[in-house]
């Protein structure tokens, strides 16, 4: 029965609930009941915004802000726009936002939607754990889990940013920030002014020190990754490895200090590999053939099918994996300059969430500014943005580092316990391959596959950063009453 309204629409109830800080699956329920969105697309307070850096983070932020009607100019130091590296995962927490903004028009034909993620034992590829992505992620989290070529992702964001009215200027290196005015100075001497400066200038950001007032250098994590692609037709031609491209899947082999993540990209025409390993001490510049040789040595003795795949790699990039400690704030004290993306919270890529966090940062910023009813409200909007994004950035850094422990056990009791728990979490007693520990000999105290862990996956993929901003804002408003 409908509630009695006497012809008058009931007023929306403002919910005064903070996201729980303790582990609870009730968060799922809470997230399923949304606060009221501010339906108007264009923000009441239109401001002039400079974005520094046209990487995935800077372009996504430019889209989010331009979409709300702000006057956005993005300055990029490179002479040409582009992205280094091959594949990237676009999990539902970022895909939901990007598709809402209209990225699908440029991206839909270029993505792959893998059916599942399969964890495998390093030595023989035996299945340890499986996370269904299709249709589960669309159903549970309201958006697909995509994998895509970085160049396609970047180009799509660039096209969307321009369509939404942002200006993107290349060959424009920022050499100095004035966070009080605020303004930027370019290497060619030009000075540009705005109401707000958003630095999305990557892990080696020069803006970070200006924002926090303290120097924070990126840290070597002790890991590096070889990144490579293989033409899918070459894989199909070999019956021993053709199975890996028969169905679009993410496969992840885990072993002592190392792992290999693979998936198809470029509408399934190309096959992407990321091979993480301990960073060797050599400071000497290696030739391409030395890097290839080193890659093969690193994975000697691994699953013969993986070795066969690696034999099809003729060129690879070696990429040291660096991260940042959590920095004190993402907003300068004068409330006219902020930092986001890798410059604020660079993390190990083991949750596949670095770029997704930058997309969320941009979305949350646009939402926080959208709640400002006048320019005087902007410092408060940035305060809310900082509170929401700082916590999320720090937590995702933490979750990423945890995978670096969970995936890299050498064979022994910890690895056996992990494999048993993974198998139990995914398959119950019906272990695949028949080589596992019987399911009824272990109790599931938690799932070491963070994609499967119910709480982690809800927190990671079900998270709605715009909703988190609105929730925080309504809480603050009510606290003042
Ligand atoms: C091996 C690997 C795998 C990964 N996999 C995933 C994944 O699957 N999913 C995911 O979400 N993330 C992944 N990531 C993380 C992701 O790549 C990064 O988090 C993301 O690209 C960061 O984007 P950004 O825009 O913040 O920084 P960047 O990409 O570093 O962009 C910074 C931009 O700023 C420009 N710039 C810098 N200084 C200046 C200046 N002074 N003036 C003007 N311009 C300037 C730079 O030229 C650059 O274009 C992975 C990372 C690695 C290393």
From TrEMBL:
Q: What Pfam families does UniProt report for this protein, alphabetically? A: FAD_binding_3 (PF01494)
Extract the Gene3D superfamilies matched here. Answer: FAD/NAD(P)-binding domain (3.50.50.60)
Q: Which GO terms fall under molecular function for this chain's record?
A: FAD binding; monooxygenase activity
Query: What is the top-level taxon of the source organism?
Result: Eukaryota
| Keywords, sorted A to Z | FAD, Flavoprotein, Monooxygenase, Oxidoreductase
Does the keyword Flavoprotein belong to this entry? yes
Q: Which SUPFAM superfamilies match?
A: FAD-linked reductases, C-terminal domain, FAD/NAD(P)-binding domain
- Asked if Repressor is a keyword of the record, the answer is no
Specify the FAD-binding domain's residue ranges: 47-373
Family as reported in the entry's similarity comment? Belongs to the paxM FAD-dependent monooxygenase family.
Protein name in the entry: FAD-binding domain-containing protein
Lineage from the top down?
A: Eukaryota, Fungi, Dikarya, Ascomycota, Pezizomycotina
């Amino acid at each position: 029965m409908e509630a009695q309204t006497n012809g008058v629409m009931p007023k929306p109830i403002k919910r005064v609930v903070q996201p729980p800080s303790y582990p609870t699956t009730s968060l799922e329920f809470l997230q399923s009941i949304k606060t009221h969105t501010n339906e108007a697309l264009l923000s009441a307070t239109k401001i002039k915004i400079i974005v520094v850096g046209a990487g995935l983070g800077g372009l996504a932020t430019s889209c989010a802000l331009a979409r709300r009607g702000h006057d956005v100019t993005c300055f990029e130091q490179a002479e040409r726009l582009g992205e280094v590296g091959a594949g990237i995962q676009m999990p539902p927490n970022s895909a939901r936002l990007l598709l809402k903004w209209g990225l699908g028009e440029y991206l839909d034909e270029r993505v792959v939607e893998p059916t599942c993620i399969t964890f495998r034992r390093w030595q023989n590829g035996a299945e340890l754990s499986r996370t269904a992505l299709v249709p589960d992620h669309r159903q549970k989290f309201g958006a697909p889990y995509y994998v895509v070529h970085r160049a396609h992702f970047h180009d799509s964001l660039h096209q969307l940013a321009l369509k939404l009215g942002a200006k993107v200027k290349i060959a424009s290196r920022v050499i100095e920030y004035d966070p009080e005015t605020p303004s930027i100075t370019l290497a060619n001497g030009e000075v540009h002014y705005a109401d707000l400066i958003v630095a999305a200038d990557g892990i080696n950001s020069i803006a970070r020190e200006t924002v926090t007032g303290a120097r924070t250098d990126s840290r070597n994590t002790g890991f590096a990754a070889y990144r490579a692609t293989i033409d899918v037709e070459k894989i199909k031609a070999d019956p021993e490895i053709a199975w890996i491209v028969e169905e679009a899947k993410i496969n992840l082999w885990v072993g002592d200090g190392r792992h290999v993540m693979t998936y198809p990209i470029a509408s399934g025409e190309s096959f992407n590999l990321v091979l993480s390993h301990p960073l060797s001490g050599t400071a000497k510049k290696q030739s391409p053939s030395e890097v290839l040789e080193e890659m093969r040595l690193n994975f000697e003795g691994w699953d013969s099918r993986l070795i066969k795949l690696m034999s099809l790699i003729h060129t690879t990039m070696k990429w040291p994996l660096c991260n940042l400690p959590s920095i004190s704030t993402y907003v300068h004290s004068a409330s006219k300059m902020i930092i986001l993306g890798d410059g604020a919270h660079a993390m190990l890529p083991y949750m596949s969430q670095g770029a997704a966090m930058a997309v969320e940062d941009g979305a949350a910023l646009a939402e926080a500014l959208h709640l400002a009813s006048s320019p005087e409200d902007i410092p408060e909007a940035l305060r809310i943005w900082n509170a929401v994004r700082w916590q999320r950035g720090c937590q995702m850094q933490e979750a990423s580092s945890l995978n670096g422990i969970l995936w890299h056990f050498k064979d022994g009791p910890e690895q056996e316990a992990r494999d048993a728990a993974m198998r139990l979490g995914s398959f119950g007693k019906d272990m695949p391959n028949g080589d596992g520990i019987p399911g009824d000999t272990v109790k599931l105290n938690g799932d070491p596959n963070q994609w499967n862990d119910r709480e982690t996956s809800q927190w990671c993929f079900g998270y709605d950063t715009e909703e988190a901003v609105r929730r925080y804002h309504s809480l603050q408003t009510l606290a003042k009453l």
